[in-house]
């Protein structure tokens, strides 16, 4: 009888211990972690992909729900100028932020490989899928983690925008000869090098002034995306949109301050990274869909879409190689890591193509 009683007491004690322990890897720590998110908010509601960041949007809601309310965001639109966001998050002035990497290409070129022509397909639908595969590649992510760690940052997820690889103009550009002598507004360090290699002259003008500058003849063309160009009125002052291999990606990378990330318990760190992977996939699909819808909008506006003829392929490849060489050799942080990253990126794209057969 005594032995039976002991067994029962032992079972009860074991059950109590099980109930007291965290279930399914859940942390016993029920502390609420309030994180400050600096939202670039440069596009407004016209691009659905940007709206994942809005207060009450998918990012905030998913973190809150998956953490059982233990991760709460304070989202501050335009907390810092776009060019200052990287440093602000690195210094802990914000815990998180979406940083448009092409704007930092002259300062931190290693993370701007996406603007090198010829790596991903110039067709945005194919290029977006290939670029996403790169950011899902373990070897690429190892280099990102290593290089960002130096600045006290943690990679969270990538936000793919409509690729900025088309020239809005009033000239029917089908050959490189057509580009010669044109004054083309270009945004970013590498596309500027690329447009020079293709024979045109790069011009710098603020985005808000592009349509008036086209109308006045101050510039002959604008290298930017289909959706953004149409949204700022380029469809009203242009006859053509010519797809080029230049600037085949335009990407924001959402980063966390490394100390803010490491201060989270392990289970919440996993929540953050899992949500990031889902948001990354969500944005890629949204941006692809928006691009496809933009095609119809631009076609209905009367703007004719063209692309460079295959006869110039060799010269275009030479221009791409020149831009790649510039990227490899320009001075800046982690210059010695760029060859390894470029190799990993190209391998990831090739693996994707081998899998899909495209």
UniProtKB/TrEMBL annotation:
Annotated GO biological processes are:
transmembrane transport
Presence of the UniProt keyword Signal in the record: yes
InterPro entries membership = DctP_fam (IPR018389), TRAP_DctP_sf (IPR038404)
Secretion signal span: 1-28
Keywords, alphabetical: Signal
Q: What is this protein called?
A: TRAP-type C4-dicarboxylate transport system, substrate-binding protein
User: What lineage is on file?
Assistant: Bacteria, Pseudomonadati, Thermodesulfobacteriota, Desulfobulbia, Desulfobulbales
């Amino acid at each position: 009888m005594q032995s039976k009683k002991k067994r029962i007491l032992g079972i009860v004690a074991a059950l109590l211990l099980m109930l007291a322990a965290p279930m399914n890897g859940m942390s016993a720590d029920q502390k609420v972690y309030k994180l400050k998110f600096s939202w670039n908010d440069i596009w407004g509601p016209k691009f659905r992909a940007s709206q994942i960041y809005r207060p009450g949007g998918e990012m905030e809601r998913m973190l809150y729900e998956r953490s059982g309310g233990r991760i709460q965001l304070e989202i501050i639109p335009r907390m810092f100028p776009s060019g200052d966001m990287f440093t602000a998050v690195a210094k802990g002035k914000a815990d998180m932020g979406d940083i448009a990497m092409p704007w930092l290409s002259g300062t931190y070129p290693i993370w701007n490989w996406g603007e090198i022509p010829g790596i991903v397909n110039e067709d945005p639908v194919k290029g977006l899928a290939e670029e996403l595969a790169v950011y899902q590649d373990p070897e690429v992510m190892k280099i990102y983690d290593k290089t960002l760690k130096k600045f006290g940052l943690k990679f969270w997820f990538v936000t793919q925008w409509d690729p900025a690889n088309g020239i809005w103009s009033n000239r029917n550009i089908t050959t490189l000869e057509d580009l010669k002598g044109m004054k083309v507004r270009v945004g970013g360090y590498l596309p500027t090098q690329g447009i020079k290699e293709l024979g045109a002259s790069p011009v710098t003008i603020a985005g808000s002034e592009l349509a008036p500058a086209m109308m006045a003849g101050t510039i002959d063309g604008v290298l930017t995306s289909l959706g953004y160009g149409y949204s700022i009125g380029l469809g009203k002052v242009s006859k053509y949109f010519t797809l080029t291999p230049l600037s085949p990606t335009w990407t924001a990378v959402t980063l966390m301050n490394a100390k803010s990330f490491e201060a989270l318990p392990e289970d919440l760190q996993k929540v953050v990274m899992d949500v990031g992977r889902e948001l990354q996939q969500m944005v890629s699909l949204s941006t692809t869909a928006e691009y496809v819808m933009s095609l119809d909008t631009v076609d209905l506006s009367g703007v004719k879409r063209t692309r460079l003829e295959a006869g110039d392929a060799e010269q275009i490849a030479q221009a791409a190689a020149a831009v790649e060489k510039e990227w490899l050799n320009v001075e800046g942080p982690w210059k010695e890591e760029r060859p390894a990253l470029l190799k990993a990126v190209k391998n990831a794209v090739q693996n994707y193509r081998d899998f899909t057969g495209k």
